[in-house]
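Repro:
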Amino acid sequence: MVWLVSISCYGSHLPGDARGSYDHVRQGERGYIPPTPKLETYARNLMLGEPFVLADSLLRRTVLEAIIEVCHFRDWPLLAVHIRTSHLHGVVDCGGPELALRDWKSYSTRALRRLPGEPPNCRYWTRGGNSSALRSEAAIHAAIHYVLAQQGEPLEHYRGEFR
């Protein structure tokens, strides 16, 4: 199965922020949370570290290379990935999105921690992530286009082969 997977950097999109957010916990359903400044302040006060952003090309390139490495190791066809400053999106053919979320974060975290000057206890990623099953070739092509061409100015990205 092919999946569109999205992961955000720690502290980059808190519940209640001005863009709105989604509750993934209550009753197993995804519910929209409108901008709520008090909720955002509450969430910020619960943070266990500073917000993290992939502020420069070295950090983004490190994450990109880690994702390519894990997909190669797991034999998962990586169709597209785009590393942004506050999040990443990828299109991958794997056994399930939870596998990609877990492995992309762990490989990337190890790679980032090997960089000179990176603090050993930095939190890089939010808990969980988002995923959507892509059930048709049209959906897969649309997701690849979204990841590579609809994220703003291109930063570090990768385009794999699709059948």
